[in-house]
Amino acid sequence: MRELPDPFASLNPHQVARKAPMRSSMQASVKAIQARIAPLQQMLRARMAHLPLPRKHQQMQKQAQPRVDQCIQTPVESAKASPIQLSWARHQDEVAEAQRLRYKVFAEEMGARLNTPVAGLDIDLYDLYCEHLLIRDSATLEVIGTYRVLPPHKALEVGCLYSDSEFDLVRLRNLRHKMVEVGRSCVHADYRSGGVIMALWGGLGQYMQQHGYEIMLGCASVPMADGGHYAASLARILSSKHLTEAAYRVFPRLPLPIDALNSSLEVEPPPLLKGYMRIGAKICGAPAWDPDFNTADFLTMLRLSDINPRYAKHFLG
Questions:
Q1: If you placed Cys at 89, which of 24, 132, 235, 253 could pair as Cys (CB 3.0 to 4.6 Å)?
Q2: What angle do CA 219, 132, 140 make, to 5 degrees?
Q3: β pairing state of 179-187 and 215-223
């Protein structure tokens, strides 16, 4: 496992000296957690080692029928004032377009350390099992937004959810048959408008209804450029207003050390997470620490029955 970001990096020398015992204790806890989750990481790495390069499956994917044969042209205003097209990837070349955008946003823009078999693409084990939602600029046909969706039957094939690598999901086991995992969401920097995000959510809502699923689950990531103080403060705020009932709480395998951070800041959630809360999503507990993406990840759950009526018409059609 790569070296974790240091939440004490933003403190001055006097503060660091004062918190030295706490720091030693936290580092010992991190090592213990790393040892505990090592078997799961080894399993995922072993699967990644057998991940084929995209071109090996190109012909097979091109011969397959489209999973969602409807391409919706939605005249939504983006930052470039261009109409957009919403569709699902039909073959590997289209999946690669989503992976290229993800790499651009996560690695080049956000500085994530991605272990990918193909330079310039964000590829992991789960991509082969997921449906990939795409938004294109109608004028250029460039992919400008994406989500990936892991349905229950595909989660059984892969053996676990992506979220299983960050959280203990034992309390959600009875929901898995009606729950899809969404993730790797991103929008090109030139198109980050509310309209593009709402179009993505509309596509997800249609998918849920079409297949009879009831729950969406996914990790909402918060940057830790300040060492984690912003994320710790956000965790305090969200837990007081947007926490699931105890029956659906999860437990991070590598928790963000909130007690060692300044959690008293008055902060606003990032736009995507704020949007989740507005439509009725809830967080399932304390955030996990993702060292590769240098983020704090909040596991977020949205039940279709909990969607805010204000947004239900757009999300559910």
A1: 132
A2: 115
A3: parallel
Neighbour count for residue 209 (Cβ, 10 Å): 14
> Mind listing the domains of the chain with CATH numbers?
64-316 (3.40.630.30)
Q: Which helix (H) or strand (E) segment is 302 a member of?
A: strand 295-303
For 209-227, what is the mean pLDDT? 94
Express each pLDDT in 220-257 by its tens digit.
999 898 999 999 999 999 999 999 999 999 999 999 99
CA dist., res. 281 & res. 215, Å (int): 10
β-partners of residue 85 are 73, 136
Residues contacting residue 78 through CB under 8 Å, at least 6 positions apart: 84, 137, 144, 190, 191, 193, 195, 196
Residue 165 near residue 44 (C-beta atoms within 8 A): yes
User: Shortest CA distance to 290 belongs to which of 22, 90, 111, 51?
Assistant: 111
List CB contacts of 188: < 8 A, sequence separation 6 or more. Answer: 101, 104, 105, 142, 143, 144, 145
Tokens of 42: 């080894």
Amino acid, single-letter form, for residue 258 = I
The pLDDT tens digits for 58-96 are 443 333 333 333 333 344 444 455 689 999 999 999 999
